[in-house]
Design brief:
By secondary structure, this protein is α/β, with parallel strands linked by helices. It has a single domain, classed as Rossmann fold. The protein has 5 helices and 7 strands; from the N terminus they run E-H-E-H-E-E-E-H-E-H-E-H. It has a 5-stranded parallel β-sheet with strand order 2-1-3-6-7, with helices on both faces. It has a two-stranded antiparallel ribbon with strand order 4-5. The radius of gyration is 14 Å and the shape is globular. The two termini are 13 Å apart.
Length: 145
């Protein structure tokens, strides 16, 4: 774990409140790993969806600070979920093995893309940057480097 200047761990709890993260992933073990990673960083995985239908319902109603999205969820593309999150101003990143990176960049140019198998440090860095940019845009204290 990275340490701050005073020997205090640097992670997501430096936000005004622990970030609430929505996870959309059809592979249960990967979803569990993502939940653990978010918890290690000081955040809360407030919900995990394993189908597009469940993810759409959550995206429409849940109060999340960010989301981690797999692109291919049980054979369906996650685009309807990403569209809802974008319309609600909830930032998201893609954690995917899907090969259509050019399509993702065209539709969601500001969304970070992490390629599976993703190294934990890459995913953590992308999530921190995502949350930092959201906090900067709403005037909250930025996360430490």
């Amino acid at each position: 774990m990275k340490m701050g200047t005073k020997g205090v761990p640097v992670h997501l709890t430096h936000m005004t409140k622990p970030p609430q993260i929505l996870i959309v992933e059809d592979e249960i073990l990967i979803a569990m790993d993502l939940e653990d990673m978010v918890a290690e960083m000081g955040g809360t995985a407030i919900a995990s969806a394993h189908t597009i239908q469940a993810a759409i319902k959550l995206a429409e109603s849940i109060e999340a600070d960010a989301a981690i999205l797999d692109v291919d969820v049980a054979g369906q593309l996650v685009f309807p979920v990403a569209d809802i999150l974008a319309a609600r101003g909830i930032p998201f990143l893609f954690n995917t093995g899907h090969s259509a990176e050019d399509i993702l960049r065209a539709r969601y140019e500001s969304a970070p893309i992490c390629r599976k198998p993703t190294l934990p440090r890459q995913l953590k860095s992308a999530l921190k940057q995502l949350l930092s940019s959201k906090n900067d845009s709403i005037g909250s204290a930025p996360l430490p480097a």
